Amino acid sequence: MKGIDGMIRLQKWNLDEKQRELAELENMQDGLREQVRALEEEIVREQKTAAKSVVISLYGSYARAVIERRNTLEKSIAEMEPVIEAKKDEVAAAFQELKKFEIARDRAAEKERYKAERKEQTRLDDIATDMFRRSKQTG
After folding, report:
1. Terminal CA-to-CA distance of the chain, rounded, Å?
2. Residue 26 belongs to what domain range?
3. pLDDT attached to residue 56
4. What is the rounded average pLDDT for all residues in the chain?
5. How far apart are CA 122 and CA 130, in angstroms?
6. How far apart are CA 11 and CA 67, in angstroms?
7. CA 16 → CA 19, 31, 103, 104, 134, distances in Å?
8. In this structure, what are the phi and psi dihedrals at residue 118, rounded to the nearest 5 degrees?
9. Cβ-based neighbours of 39, under 8 Å, separated by 6 or more
10. Could you report the per-residue pLDDT of 65-82, keeping only the tens digit for each?
């Protein structure tokens, strides 16, 4: 059982590590999405400011730069999708591996319990047989 318990601890650690990595990737992707939202809000503010300003000609170059930045962020978000999906698959595989060891441990424990119960029942049967023989001899 010590070997299985060690493997279970190892698999739990492995699963926890993969879950942590997945959470980091998802947080990074969420951060990129937040940056896109912030850029879109900034564009709206700048459009309002540019509409009131005399220097509208500068807004065009600013808008192109912001659009390029947004496109870059959206591309990064899209590139992270397959990485995140692969990590989710790794998490699922690690979970399945952990469950295999836990099931093996539980089966081994059940087998040991069954053997102990059988041994105890055999002992009780022997005692009952001895008591029966003694009662027949004295009786």
Report:
1. 49
2. 2-138
3. 61
4. 90
5. 12
6. 45
7. 5, 22, 19, 20, 62
8. -65, -40
9. 66, 69, 70, 73
10. 888 999 999 999 999 999
- Among all chains, which residue has been given the structure tokens 């698959």? 89
The widest CA-to-CA distance across the chain, in whole angstroms, is 122
Q: How many structural domains comprise the chain?
A: 1
The CATH number given to whatever domain includes residue 55 is 1.10.287
CA distances, 86 to each of 17, 19, 79, 80, 137 (Å):
14, 12, 12, 10, 76
Residue 53 is classified by DSSP as: S
Task: Print burial letters for 45-64: b (CB count within 10 Å at least 16), e (below 16).
Answer: ebeeebeeeeeeeebeeeee
